[in-house]
Each structure stands twice: as C-alpha cells, then as structure tokens.
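ok so I'm stuck.
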Amino acid sequence: RIGGVPGRGGAGGAPPGGAGPAGGPPASCMPGRGRARATCASMGGMRLTAELGDITTVDVDAIVNAANSSLLGGGGVDGAIHAAAGPRLLAACRELRRTTLPDGLPVGGAVATPGFDLPARWVVHTVGPDRHRGQTDPALLASCFTTSLDVAAGLGARTVAFPAVSAGVYGWDAHEVAQVAVRAVRAWGSDDGRGIEHVRFVLFSGRLLSAFEGALAAPGT
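replied:
not stuck anymore, here's the structure
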C-alpha cells in the first residue's frame, strides 16, 4: 500500500506544441466542436486529455476514485468503481481502515489499492472537499489531484484517469473544479511528469466535459 497526505504542486509552465489563435494555448489544447476529447501537452511532456466516458472501463495504469473518508463505498463514481472492481476492493479498504487509516482518509489525501476486477491495475482513492460542510478552499481540491499523482507515480503508473472530484454531491461548480484540476495537474507535471505520461479526465456528462475542455483551452489555467 502506498498512501499520501495533502500534497504539493510545482511551478506551472506553458505547454509546448505551438500557439493557438492570437497567442493563446496550443492548437492541440483547443476544445473541438463535436469531439469527445481535447488534448494538451505540458512543459514536461505529460499529456492532459478530457473525454466523455465511464472511468471504470478505461485502460490505464491507475484510476482515481472520488471516495469518502470512510473508504467503504458510496454513491456516484465511488459506488460505480466499487461495483466494477468487485468485493475485494471493499475488503482492501476495510483492511486500510483496520490498520493504517483507523480515522479514515483526510480530505485532500490519497491512498492506493489494487484495481482487482477493473482494467486499471490500481485505484487511487482521494477525498474531495465538501462545500456543503464549509470545505471551500481550492487548495484542498488541488491536493486531491496532486497527492493522487504523487501516489500513482510512486506505484510506477504512467497513465492515470481522474473523475471530476467534488463536482457531484459535494457541491463544487464544474467549471471551478475543472480550472483547479487542470492548473494543479499542469503544475505537478511541469517537473518532467515524474514518470507519468498521460493524465485523462474521464467525465460522465457533456456538462463536465465542456468545463474541462474550456479549462484545457484557457491560457494560464
């Protein structure tokens, strides 16, 4: 097991690949009408993409689960991942609670388990901030992404898929989540990607996809 506490980000940087219109982001980062994906390459060579899809089916080394502090499953993405991974995932999470995380996983932290029946080899669990509980600091949300990447990199993952952490029942605006996520991942990846080559934001609705495409296209996000 490899875990993490609320983490850090590095200095940001403009992605290479040629400028887009009017000196904006690279053309490869521009959102495309009718496309399911917008692609961007960071300074360190790590690609960021956004797509519409089911995160439980993607073929990556690690997927990130928008978990709750109990790690014992829930609704939304969390419930879908537990259902697809099978009962051994819940057993592994219960073992974490019994041993290293008796008080649960803190907001902004991350911890890994095997993926079991998922295509992904690992699941990195992170707990997003809940606006309904007054957890409104963007740094907590950014930590979900950077600490999850720390954990994934420690496992040797090269490809990682994220959902829109906290954009569901935790009450965060989709566009704010997208901006925080893209900025945090770009900053983390500016340090040569630390072994991670591709980060995929896998979104379950067109509304979320649009928000992430916009964040990928925005200069300085």
